Input
Amino acid sequence: MKTRTIAKLHSFRVPQRGGSAQHSEYGRTRKGVAFCSSCGNVYHHKEWHRRSSRVLAQAKRNGQAITKTLCPACSLVGKRMFEGELVLRNLPAAIEEEVLRLVRGFGARALRRDSQHRIIAIEHLKGVWRITTTENQLAIRLAKKIRDTFKRATLAISHSREPFEVGRVNMVFS
Ligand SMILES: [Zn+2]
Output
């Protein structure tokens, strides 16, 4: 239950730099309707939801103001930032394809459950795979899923608080 609570809070967290919280008005307090100009997600009932022309049409009919903005997830991506990072080292070539399929499937399911939970990038650099996510618990859950599925990797999980909380997971395959 604790994990879920953290994930929930973090789905609305927005990086704050130099004390400016430019998007935090769309955190948990703002009333009204907004839509993300990048992914089309819609903010209403104090949460971000998948794009919905029905909600926007309804708001228009009710005379509510509709604000154009960037949702927290797109805002992170635009700033080349992330909240979760998973690094896979020594991933054996024999299971590489299977692991990547698991990663993509996990990302797709996470997004279906919460429009703000996304895999930002899957990169391969110098023999190391790096997966970044918009939410820190997502990277940790993904790492545990890979570990439990393939049973041949060790995990090291760390959190950093600066400039905002990032969950980093290092996975080493043996
Ligand atoms: Zn968006």
